[in-house]
Design goal:
Helix content: 25-40%
Radius of gyration: 25 Å
GO molecular function, one term: 4 iron, 4 sulfur cluster binding
Cofactor: [4Fe-4S] cluster; Mo-bis(molybdopterin guanine dinucleotide)
Number of domains: 3
Structural class: alpha/beta
CATH class of the largest domain: Alpha Beta
GO cellular component, one term: membrane
Strand order of the largest sheet: 6-5-18-17-16-7
CATH architecture of the largest domain: 3-Layer(aba) Sandwich
Strand content: 15-25%
CATH topology of the largest domain: Rossmann fold
Organism: Phytoactinopolyspora halotolerans
Bound molecules: ligand MGD, molybdenum atom
Protein name: FdhF/YdeP family oxidoreductase
């Protein structure tokens, strides 16, 4: 392969660029969403599906984890939720004939977009040792292959069981039980790449790794809502409805982001006449175009300013709250006192005027909610940054009262629930004790591998079986080429999936694809319709049941797959009633109610439309179950990323037409990019300094001690991002992220801070 030549198709030949949009959603949003549904699923199936989306008695949207309001709109979905549904409800099929016609080698040259567009998987498929093609296999045959490989391991830690956050509570609970009965805590999940930094920071400082607000805190109570490191217009569109409600009753909104994202500026609510035909609601009162990675310095500067204001007036800091509920303020304040304004300016790219106007907003607001997502969690210093946001909230007692608190906005629709169910490589001892008591066995106590450690173990030949319950491990993880090689060396990979994706085409030496039901589909077991449960970003647990005919009669539910696999592997002597669990999911919920705190009386409470909320001690009673029983201020040392001359700090983001590694289409309407994805957004002044023209073809190159990494064939787009920064889409850019470039403490790939150089190429190398 020549330098810079694409290793697979790029679908970018028609790429063109227009000015970015100033507002989000409105009628075009709905039209785009509905078009996808009708194209893929047909009119009748599409309408049938969307009617029950996010409604009591219907299914939970397979898109994001934003909560549903108590009284849902007539159509409680958004453009991107509709696209997520269309992907699943599609009438296209990937069947045995498809695999006979396409070798694995051929499929590996296809783009992620192409792979996803082929449709739903229909039958179990098996790649025998180093074979060119997948061939059909029976379900029993597939379970035999897995059982045989697991039986050949010299230690249960030679297996790793990945989970992606669409998995239901019931399936997740069984999956972790199976892994632990087998004897391993190797339960990596997508959360390791997502909100792990939030969990780590919140666990340490407030004693629970989940957000502390409810939807009403945002819609009805908060006086100031800070949206930092998040692009809700694309990734949590229904959040804009909540922000609009807040705005209309007089709340203020501040957006902190290196990019002027459309949804943060004006929202045209498609559910209202005003939003469809009018000018829409302006959302952010203040927009701070911060530099990538500048948030720790920013919040330190703000906290210092709040302390100084308090020294003058005595009423800025909530002394009563701090005295009664917190510890560690003096150590934190010591760091703020030493803060160097020049360093703050370098890190944030903001003027002191801009920082002061934020401080004014904060002092005038009696209650503040801070919302954040991947813009904060995927940096080297993510955990200290989020701890610093907790410092910020604690200073004014902005936690555990109406309209105030921390709101890490989760990604996958049940990623938070999967954690609650035990999908974590280091579940607390108390959980393992209760699991042990309920199921009469000794779960392993040594911590397992997270996502990055799983890949390291693959590289070292320490993994014999890699199983994934959903997701797209090969495309979502960093260091794409090395990770693909690592996956190819694993003796057996197993993917429980709905759609074809990259992970299937960089298979282990033997590999299984096990096709499962999706959220939208009817799940019949033992003649009775089953429902599953999920937990949203605000700890609300509710039921979800699909209504569509399954894409193929051969599909099994995730629960059924795990239960049958567990029985086959653990044998007839295992006392767990796997068959009963598979036949009646209420039997699983009964066990969950005895193992997981907050789920008491689960079956009765889940019958309530809209479900129930899990306990959260800081939110409910200002109780902080930390190591010292207090909400903890932390002293976070500032460490400003220094970017050498001629280099940019690259963040990797989602376009408006994708769900993680699933590419819905090739447009990013809000940012003005059409018919292609290989673009890099750079500030026009930086382009002038670098001597690169808008539209120029470039390779992105990142430099590391173990060598360079290259993502070839991009086009430069002059864009109003913060100076010194750049942005490009994921997963195309994962090749630039070395495995060891991770956040401190959380070990999350730092895929939002990559120092890169743009290397001009003679002409575009996009596919012919
Ligand atoms: N339609 C759709 N919905 C989704 C997803 C999807 O792919 N498509 N993915 C789901 C998942 S799993 C997740 S985790 C969420 C992700 O939701 P987001 O976190 O909104 O997703 P990203 O595209 O990664 O956007 C990161 C945002 O943070 C900003 N940012 C980057 N670096 C910094 C920084 O250093 N400081 C600050 N202040 N801002 C920064 C970027 O400019 C961008 O606006 O969305 C979920 N919902
Ligand atoms: N560079 C960079 N890398 C990133 C990120 C980033 O911002 N930048 N974001 C990270 C984040 S936040 C996340 S969450 C991860 C995402 O990592 P993953 O969760 O592993 O990836 P997804 O793309 O969400 O997975 C999509 C696949 O899930 C399968 N699927 C869909 N629905 C179902 C279902 O109901 N059941 C089953 N069994 N399978 C199903 C389909 O086969 C589909 O191809 O990526 C991470 N990687
Ligand atoms: Mo995520």
């Amino acid at each position: 392969m020549t330098k810079g030549a694409p290793d697979h198709d790029y679908d970018d030949s028609g790429l063109h660029v227009r000015p970015p949009k100033g507002s989000a959603a409105g009628l075009p949003g709905v039209v785009h969403g509905l078009k996808d549904v009708v194209d893929q699923a047909g009119v009748r199936r599409g309408v049938r599906t969307l009617r029950v989306l996010n409604k009591p008695g219907g299914f939970d949207c397979p898109g994001c984890a934003w909560p549903e309001p108590e009284t849902p709109h007539l159509a409680e979905f958004c453009e991107n939720g509709a696209k997520a549904v269309a992907e699943e409800a599609t009438l296209r099929r990937v069947d045995a004939g498809f695999f006979a016609a396409h070798s694995i080698g051929q499929l590996a040259t296809k783009s992620d977009y192409w792979l996803g567009q082929q449709g739903r998987l229909t039958a179990p498929m098996f790649r025998d040792t180093d074979a060119d093609h997948y061939r059909p296999i029976s379900w029993d045959g597939a379970f035999d292959v897995i059982a045989e490989e697991l039986a050949g391991m010299d230690s249960p830690d030679r297996a790793a069981f990945y989970t992606s956050g669409r998995t239901s509570n019931e399936a997740a609970f069984l999956y972790q039980l199976f892994a632990r009965k087998l004897g391993t805590n190797n339960l990596p999940d997508c959360s390791n790449m997502c909100h792990e930094s939030s969990g780590a920071a919140l666990n340490e400082t407030i004693g629970i790794g989940k957000g502390s607000v409810t939807l009403a805190d945002i819609t009805d109570h908060a006086e100031l809502i800070v949206v930092v490191g998040q692009n809700p217009g694309t990734n949590h569109p229904r959040m804009l409805t909540a922000l609009e409600t807040a705005k209309r009753r007089g709340a203020r909104i501040v957006a902190i982001n290196p990019l002027p994202e459309a949804g943060l500026r004006t929202f045209k609510n498609p559910q209202t006449v005003r939003g469809v035909v009018g000018a829409g609601t302006p959302l952010a009162d203040l927009f701070l175009p911060i530099r990538v990675g500048g948030d720790l310095a920013f919040f330190q500067a703000v906290n210092r300013a709040l302390m100084e204001a308090d020294e003058r007036t005595g009423d800025v800091v909530d002394h009563a709250f701090i005295d009664q509920f917190t510890s560690g303020l003096s150590e934190a304040a010591e760091v703020w006192r030493k803060l160097d304004p020049a360093e703050v300016a370098a890190a944030t790219g903001l003027t002191s005027r801009q920082i002061d106007s934020f401080v004014d907003e904060v002092i005038s607001a009696r209650s503040v909610v801070v919302c954040w997502a991947m813009g904060l969690t995927q940096h080297k210093k993510s955990v200290p940054t989020i701890r610093e946001i907790v410092n910020f909230l604690l200073l004014r007692g902005n936690i555990g009262r109406p309209g105030a608190g921390a709101c890490p906005v989760r990604g996958h629709s049940n990623v938070q629930g999967d954690r609650t169910m035990g999908i974590w490589e280091k579940m607390p001892e108390a959980f393992l004790d209760r699991l042990a008591a309920e199921f009469g066995f000794q779960p392993p106590r040594r911590h397992g591998y997270d996502t990055v450690d799983t890949i390291r173990a693959m590289v070292d030949g320490r993994i014999r079986v890699f199983m994934a319950l959903g997701g797209n491990f090969a495309a979502a993880t960093p260091d794409s080429e090395r990770t693909a090689d690592a996956l190819r060396s694993v003796p057996l990979t197993v993917h429980v999936s709905t759609k074809l994706n990259r992970s299937h085409v960089v298979p282990g030496r033997r590999s299984l694809i096990l096709p499962c039901l999706g959220r939208t589909e009817r799940d019949m077991q033992a003649g009775r319709a089953q429902f599953v449960t999920v937990e949203d970003s605000m700890s609300m647990v509710h039921a979800s049941s699909g209504n569509l005919r399954p894409a193929s009669a051969e599909l099994r539910s995730e629960v059924a797959i795990i239960a049958r696999l567990a029985r086959r592997v653990l044998g007839g002597d295992d006392a767990t009633p796997w068959e009963e669990f598979a036949a009646d999911y209420s039997r699983i919920r009964e066990r969950i109610s005895r193992v997981v705190p907050g789920f008491e009386d689960f079956e009765r409470r889940i019958a309530h439309p809209g479900g129930f909320v899990l306990p959260h001690p800081p939110r409910d009673e200002r109780r902080f179950p930390t190591s010292d029983g207090h909400a903890r201020f932390t002293a976070n040392e500032l460490d400003v990323i220094s970017v050498p001359d001629g280099r940019l700090l690259l963040q990797t983001i989602r376009s408006h037409d994708q769900f993680n590694t699933t590419i819905y289409g090739l447009d990013d309407r809000y940012r003005g990019v059409y018919a292609g994805r290989r673009v890099v957004f750079v500030n026009a002044d930086d382009l002038a300094t670098l001597g690169i023209a808008d539209g120029a073809p470039v390779d992105l190159v990142s430099e590391w001690p173990d060598g360079e990494r290259r993502a070839p064939a991009f086009r430069v787009v002059a864009y109003p991002t913060a100076r010194g920064c750049a942005a490009a889409y994921y997963p195309e850019t994962n090749a630039l992220v070395p495995l060891d470039h991770t956040a401190e403490i959380s070990n999350t790939p730092a895929s939002k801070s990559l120092i890169v150089r743009l290397e001009q190429t003679a002409a575009t190398t996009a596919s012919p």
